[in-house]
Design goal:
Number of helices: 14
Radius of gyration: 22 Å
Structural class: mainly alpha
Largest sheet: 2 strands, antiparallel
Helix content: 55-70%
Order of helices and strands: EEHEHHHHEEEHHHHHHHHH
Strand content: under 5%
Length: about 450
């Protein structure tokens, strides 16, 4: 494994017209190193570890992402630094941010108590951080090798989170309490810890994530990327390593005892199987059977408990609570249907917890905000679909498919918990969308110094 890349810009040479028809060179910022730094701090450090003065937005990964937004903004001010050319993800992001900003203004207009005002500010700061990560990837990762570089480090980060979860489950010890590095960081709240579920001494683990559901879906996304690298890495050794990482991440998904993770995994594999060759599908299914058998041997009762959770339906208190939320929020939606009560203003300590990001978006940002979120997820999937149709290389088409499915998984999983409240999940969504933008530019050989 290579050394951790630095966050500074590296030289990327691009020919530009000279005064006598000769080419000169232009150095453009490299976004892969800074993006990897965000990924590593998001996945390797516990989700509730923050800089004390910054509270909820003080996660190191979020702070770095905000710095990336400032960096990207500064590059746009200088023609020798700006990465220009068409980039659909910029417009998709701009549309989403516009709906979020409109809701923020609508919230301020109705007058916000201090706690809600703080929540609204947090939502906007988080949005800036997510935008920074997306834009630095879409406009700063300009070669296919650098796209793979980001993917590889993302896989290693997911593998670390999986190993932490496996250690938690095997030893019933929470190692995340010892990851408060550097010492200036503090835990905003207690780490997520363990949660008994399913009886028979079973308990849930979340690795370094902020919630069990978040952990399970992140592992599904990491699994998808690892499977792609396991198939298309140029070296046999790398293919074996990433295949092993894929098996590891598939094996820890049940440890969250989350219905969402199991359903997300099933949906992702089903969608990929529709496009994969039959042999690949059969190989994946065979590995899945082996992993399931190993889990059954090592921890009898775990898979049965998951099955019981999946078929419980309305008998499960968490499912019943989610369905009851609709009646509770209906008056709030009817009161402000278009722009909502204001982004980030629905706080569990003031109202109640809504385990449904789409419903939460409707309450806080109205139908305009829901439209913006559909644009963000749907636009990314559509761009990935166009890449897959026009890409010349098989590995590019496969990566476009994997990214589209991963974004779809994040969108559908958001029906089961307030997903965008969790910063690792939030940053991962923008990571996927930014990689779609980078792959779009790379596969279309889009000029980077012309146009707007």
């Amino acid at each position: 494994m290579n050394a951790v890349p630095t966050a500074g810009p590296s030289a990327l040479l691009r020919p530009t017209p000279g005064t006598r028809g000769e080419g000169t060179t232009r150095r453009l910022p490299d976004g892969s190193g800074p993006a990897i730094a965000v990924i590593l701090t998001a996945y390797l450090l516990p989700a509730r570890l923050v800089f004390p003065p910054l509270a909820a937005v003080g996660r190191p990964a979020v702070v770095l992402a905000i710095v990336l937004f400032l960096w990207w903004s500064l590059t746009r001010l200088h023609p020798r630094l700006a990465v220009r050319g068409r980039q659909p993800m910029r417009w998709i992001l701009a549309g989403y941010l516009a709906t979020l900003g409109a809701s923020y203004i609508a919230g301020l207009a109705r007058g916000l108590p201090p706690l809600e005002a703080n929540g609204a500010d947090r939502a906007m700061v988080m949005a800036i951080g997510g935008a920074g990560l997306l834009l630095i990837l879409a406009d700063g990762v300009l070669t296919r090798d650098r796209v793979d570089r980001v993917l590889r480090w993302f896989c290693w980060a997911c593998g670390f989170m999986a190993m932490v979860a496996l250690g938690q489950f095997a030893l019933r010890r929470d190692f995340t309490t010892h990851l408060n590095l550097p010492p200036v960081l503090v835990f905003q709240r207690d780490v997520i810890g363990f949660d008994d579920r399913g009886g028979a001494g079973l308990f849930r683990v979340a690795g370094t994530a902020g919630h069990y559901i978040e952990f399970s879906v992140l592992m599904v996304i990491g699994l998808l990327v690892a499977m792609h690298l396991g198939r298309y890495s140029p070296l046999r050794r790398d293919r074996q390593i990433f295949t092993a990482l894929a098996v590891l991440q598939a094996g820890v998904i049940p440890l969250s005892l989350s219905r969402t993770g199991v359903l997300a995994l099933g949906a992702a594999v089903l969608l990929l199987a529709l496009a994969w060759p039959l042999r690949t599908t059969l190989n994946v299914m065979a590995v899945g059977v082996v992993v399931a058998a190993a889990i059954q041997v090592v921890r009898p009762g775990l898979l049965q408990s998951l099955r019981a959770l999946l078929v419980a339906g309305e008998r499960d208190p968490s499912v019943r609570g989610r369905t009851e939320d609709y009646a509770f929020v209906a008056p709030y939606i009817a009161e402000r249907p278009w722009f909502g009560r204001g982004a980030g203003t629905w706080l569990p300590e003031l109202y109640q917890l809504l385990d449904n990001q789409w419903l939460l978006t409707l309450v806080t940002t109205g139908w305009v905000g829901v439209t913006g979120l559909v644009l963000l997820f749907g636009g990314g999937i559509m761009v990935a679909g166009r890449i897959r149709r026009h890409a010349k290389l098989t590995r590019d088409r496969d990566l476009a498919l994997v990214l589209a499915v991963a974004v779809g998984v994040t969108a559908v999983s958001s029906f089961t918990f307030d997903s965008l409240h969790f910063s690792t999940y939030f940053l991962t969504v923008h990571l996927l969308l930014g990689l779609i933008g980078a792959l779009w530019r790379v596969t279309r050989a889009e000029p980077t110094n012309e146009g707007g």
